[in-house]
Amino acid sequence: MISSLRFICILFVLVLTACSNAAVKIPEKFLGDWIITVEEKAGFPWWHQIKYPVNLSVSESGLRFTDQGGFECIPETQFYDDEIDMLVFKHCLPNKSQRVYDVFYRAKHKDGFIVGESWTYKLLFKWVGNQRLDRH
Amino acid sequence: MNVDQAGNAWPPTAGTFGNPNASIPGWSIVNSPQPGDIVAQQRVYSDASGHVGIVVGGGDVISARTGGLSRDPVNSVFSANNPQASGPIMYRRYVGQ
Question: How far apart are the first and last CA of chain B?
Fold first, then answer.
C-alpha cells in the first residue's frame, strides 16, 4: 500500500515536471547514439520481458530508441528535467494488461556514459549506455 | 544474461515459446495439439514478449487473462488478428531432455 502511494506520488511529480519542462533543451552531453547493455543482477531477469532501449538516439529535438525486440519508438512522453538533470521517457507500446503501471525510463549522464533505469511500479533493472562514436 | 545454448532467454518466455525459430530443450513443435501441450504467440508489448497457455480438451486453452486464469476457446485467445501479434500461433509438446 505504501509502495503504491509512493509510486503515485512519483508519477504525479513526473507529470508535473513534464508539464513544467516541456520546452527545456536537452544538454549536449546527452546527444548522440548510445548502445545500451543491462546491468545484470541475481534474481528474476526482468530484462527478458520488460522492454528497454538497446539503442538510444538523442538529438536536440528529442529521442528515439529501439528495444531488445527490435521495435523502434519515438516516445510520445519524453522530457528532460533540468533540475535533476535527467531524461525521462515512456515506451510507445501498450502494456499487456491495462491494469498494470506503464513502463518508463529515466537516464542520467555520468562520466561519459548514460546510466538508466527501467521502472514500472518499482525499479526493475538498470542499464548503461556507451556512446557510438562511428557516426560522429 | 540467462540464455540457453541456442541463445534464447532462459527460462523460456512466452515470446520464446511462440518463436518458430527458437529451439527449446525438451520441447518439440507440433502441428496437432493435444491436452497438455503449450500454445503461444509472440506479441509486442512494453512489458511482455507474448502470450502462452496450456491446451486442454475440447479445443480450449487455460491462460492468464485480466482477472485471473481463464478457460477459453484457443482461437478466441490466440489469433493472427490480435493487434499486438508479431508471430504465428505455435504449439509445443514436452518430450523430455
Answer: 22
Give residue A124's domain range. 2-132
ipTM above 0.90, yes or no: no
Domain ranges of chain B: 14-94
pTM of the model: 0.81
Q: A134 burial class (0-12, 13-18, 19+ CB within 10 angstroms)? A: exposed
Q: Does residue B8 belong to the interface with chain A, where contact is any CB pair within 8 Å?
A: no
**For B85, nearest residue in chain A (alpha carbons):** A96
What is the model's pLDDT at position A21? 46
C-alpha–C-alpha distance, residues B31 and B50, integer Å: 19
Identify which of B1, B2, B45 has the shortest CB distance to residue A96: B45
> What's the CA gap between B92 and B78, in Å, rounded?
14
> What are the pLDDT digits (tens) for A56-102?
999 998 999 999 989 999 999 999 999 999 999 999 999 998 888 99
Residue (of A113, A64, A112, A110) closest to A91 by Cα position: A64
CATH number at residue A128: 2.40.128
Check: CB of residue A49 under 8 Å from CB of residue A38.
Answer: no
Write out the three cell numbers for B39: 500454445
Q: Given B1, B13, B84, which is nearest A49 (Cβ)?
A: B13
Q: Give me the residues of chain B with pLDDT under 70, please.
A: 1-9
**Who among A45, A99, A120 is closest to B2 (CB)?**
A45
Structurally, chain A folds into a number of domains equal to 1
Cβ-Cβ pairs closer than 8 A, A with B, add up to: 49
